[in-house]
């Protein structure tokens, strides 16, 4: 019905020629933007409503107990349900450290939080379908889990600054007791998320539409063939210094995939931009030594590269 409405608007009301690239590009932008915004609002509401039952104090208590890696898994799952980017995750990361939670566990949260969240899941579902979205969520949580385990085993606490200089104001959620309070909280979260991301979504969908309709597939294939099996490490290393919203990155990754870039390569590029960034590195430098920042980036980068190869291997199964 939505596609029919968009077709009617462009081809019957505005009288655009449906065979032109401009018309196809506008159709792509309008349809995908409306679809994803609707899904975004609904899914953020559901995630926020469920999160309202998860007290932060109890979460800190659970994460502080040593249970053979279960605390890392809980931290990664908690990161998946918090709607933070790589930089926005740091205040809560600092709060966890100051509350005595093991460093490896806090890193599990820090990796997964920007990599997997409700609005990214919506975008993945809307653009790639449920199989790839589910596989991405699982891979993101596992990446946070194993990265935290590895970093925790390295005994890196000595590289933390004795006095954390950054603002340690942590994410605080008001205690919600009634169903009406939870409903209002979830509605406000949905409105806030859509208001925060709509411009990035339009920009991302617009860039994706241009790539989809104007960039020749032969050009994409040529670029891939020049790097061969090293394509994934190259795109990940290109993506790590960048900083952007998933709302803009996911549509671009979709367009690249539709132009012939393997699924794992496109997702690895998106994961690198989402999970790691130079602004995040600068902020982390305020609470830890440069060596620890570099170790953290190296472990996560290696994990993203391996995940990209895995998705390429499983591409035929997921599609």
Care to give the gist of this entry?
With 319 residues, this protein is mostly helical. It is 74% helix and 0% strand.
What topology emerges from the helices and strands here?
Layout (H helix, E strand, L loop, with lengths): L1 H12 L7 H31 L4 H8 L6 H11 L9 H9 L4 H13 L2 H11 L1 H24 L25 H36 L2 H11 L3 H9 L6 H13 L4 H13 L2 H8 L4 H24 L1 H4 L1
Describe this structure as you would to a colleague.
The two termini are 24 Å apart. This protein is mainly α and 319 residues long. It has helices at 2-13, 21-51, 56-63, 70-80, 90-98, 103-115, 118-128, 130-153, 179-214, 217-227, 231-239, 246-258, 263-275, 278-285, 290-313, 315-318. The chain has one domain (2-167, 174-318). 74% of the residues lie in helices and 0% in strands. Residues 165-171 have low confidence and may be disordered.
What is the residue-mean pLDDT, rounded to a whole number? 79
Model regions low in confidence, pLDDT < 50 over at least 5 residues: 165-171
**How would you classify the quaternary structure?**
single chain
The backbone outline, from C-alpha atoms, is globular
Strand tally: 0
Largest sheet: none
Give the domain tally: 1
Tell me the number of helical segments per DSSP (H or I, 4 or more residues long).
16
SSE series: HHHHHHHHHHHHHHHH
The whole-angstrom Rg is 21 Å
The proportion of residues in beta strands is: under 5%
Helix vs. strand class: mainly alpha
Q: What helical percentage do the residues reach?
A: over 70%
